[in-house]
Predict the structure.
Amino acid sequence: MPAVIENYWVTILKALGHPTRLQIVIELLKGTKCVTDIHDILPASQANISQHLTVLRNARIVDFAQDGSQRCYYVCRPELVEGVLELLRNEQPESKAKKVQCCLRKPENADGHQAV
C-alpha cells in the first residue's frame, strides 16, 4: 500500500481519535453549527474548539461556510464518518473476545480438565 494512503488514513484516525474532536464530529453530524454553538454544547473554550476544528479540517472531515463574521462548520464526508462510527458501535470487545489458549498447554476436555 502506498505511503500516501497510509498517511492519509493515519491523519483521519488521529483526527477522530481525540475525545473532543469525536464529540464535535458527532454534534456536526446532527447539523451545521458555528463555534459558539459547539461551545454551548461542549465543555471546552472557543479557542480550544477552533483548534480541534482546524485538525478536523486538515483531515478533510469537516469544512465551513462563512456566515457574516461567523464560520459555520459541517461534516463534509458524512459517509466516511458514519461508517467509522458504525464499525465502532458494532464492536463490543467484551462479548466478542475469544478465549486464546496457549499452544504449550494441553487442551481442556469438555468438563474443564486438562486432556491426558
Notes: The mean pLDDT is 88.
